[in-house]
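Give me the 3D structure for DNA replication and repair protein RecF.
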Amino acid sequence: MLVRHLSLTDFRNYSAAEVALQPGANLFVGSNGQGKTNLVEALGYLSTLGSHRVSSDQALIRSTTQAAIIRARLEHQGREVLVEVQINKSEANRAQVNRSMVKIREIPRFFSSVLFAPEDLALVRGDPSVRRKFLDQLLVARTPRLAGVASDYDRVLRQRNTLLKSARNSGVKANQLSTLEIWDDRLVALGSEIIAERDALVARLRPHVEAAYLAVAGADHSPRLMSRLSILSSNSTDDDTADADEALVATDSPVIRADIESDFRAALVRLRRQELDRGITLCGPHRDDVVFQLNGLPAKGYASHGESWSFALALKIASADLLRVDSTSGDPVVILDDVFAELDQARRTRLAAAVADYEQVLITAAVFDDVPPALAAHTVHISAGTIVDPAADA
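Predicted structure for DNA replication and repair protein RecF (394 residues):
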């Protein structure tokens, strides 16, 4: 997959931008705050319908305007597709493919990318919610229908939590909540599918992460990934933090869907009293985690800064490798946002080699010399929301 042209209107600090892109490496260079990251953020939005920097779409729309437009001309096997998204302040977002209206949720199936940014260090050092989001975005990229399953699960979870809060406030006893059993059935059915799919994904990622970590770090620190399931825990807490989840059971053995459903139902019974006391659902995929280890120890808390960076990079490179294997639309576009400034010279060289054979790689950097020459063949300079020399060598 290739991005041939990117057009922005009222996106972030760009009133208008037109950028031609080439196969292979494309480097955006500019001082901090000039808008280079905004370009790759726009492309990342097309593949995830979200930003890697902010949780709200409102921040993506240029101040004083009511809408932002992202338009990208994509190419795969000689066939071009024009994809457009309009992000609105006061109404639902809209999308088009080849000038025909489509549902916004359909856009990611036309464009696949893997983006790595400094914020991704939180994959190793941050809360479980960051790792869940990483897994779920990769799941949807590989199997788009799972977006609907996740959406349905979130809806059921909200309904169940509302019922639990109502029961807590009114003093209803557990055995009087027949309605709760209906939501339990839906929670187990949808949640078990998500748990099984995530666990299978973790298993698929393992060999790719091992290879990618060795490629980036230049050393074998025995990286491991293990699922940590809340349905196997004897108790839980209100807080979704790493410390609160330490008691969850981690496993690198494949889980069986029937066993998941059985364990899920048993966990709901076991935790019913606590759930009624707290008014919240205390087990399920919304409280699971994945454990990362190096040399037999948890990467979080034990890995050095360089090892943590290498692990986070390995996760993203492994994601790209997995999408490359599974996709029918070619390689995902690999995006490296302000990454090289954080790496030593050896890791810069190894990272450049690790992504060199992808169809297209987009890099942002504040300092040109931070980026290995192999990735700087096509360079675009950015200044104050302006493309200084767009694709002059195209």
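The longest strand covers residues 2-11. Let me know if you want a second pass.
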